[in-house]
Fold this sequence. Notes:
By secondary structure, the chain is an alpha+beta fold. The protein has a single domain (5-132), classed as Alpha-D-Glucose-1,6-Bisphosphate, Chain A, domain 4, CATH 3.30.530. The protein has three helices and seven strands; from the N terminus they run E-H-H-E-E-E-E-E-E-H. The chain has helices spanning 15-23, 25-28, 111-132; strands at 5-11, 35-38, 45-49, 56-64, 68-73, 87-96, 99-107.
Amino acid sequence: MDDPIEKEIFLDAPPEEVFSYLTDSRKYLLWMGVAAELDPRPGGTFKLDPNGRDVVFGKFLEVTRPRRVVFTWGWNEPDHPMPAGSSRVQNHLEPKNGGTLLRLRHFGVPPSRRDRHEHGWPHYLGRLQMIVAGRDPGPDPYGTPATRHS
C-alpha cells in the first residue's frame, strides 16, 4: 500500500488551463464523473460522484496555481475498503513543449482496489487529454451506474 500508483500524460494545453480542469467542478465533469463539488483550497471539499451511485469524498490539501493540486480520496460508503479521505492524490503540472506534463501519484490505495485504480486513472487522464485538445471523448463507460468502478 506504500507504493503509489504513478501515471504521466502530456496535455496539449498550458498548465494554467489544465489546472482549471482539476479545480473547477464544471470542467472536472467534462472528463470524469456525473456530479462534483470542488472547493479548491486547503481544507476545502473534494466530492465526486463518478457514476450516479458511488461518491468519492476527500479534502484538498494543497492547491498551488498552476503547478500542483493535492487532495484526499476515498469512497463514502459504509465499510468500503478505501474509506473517504483514506488515500491521497497528487497532481503535478509541468510546462513542457508548449503544453503540460501531468504527473499523477495516488498514495494509500489498498491492494484490493489497486487494479481498478491502475486502470481507471489512465482511462480518465486519456479523457482529460482529449478534452483539453478540444475533442469530445464521448460517453464515459465507467460513468454509468451499471458499471461499478471504485
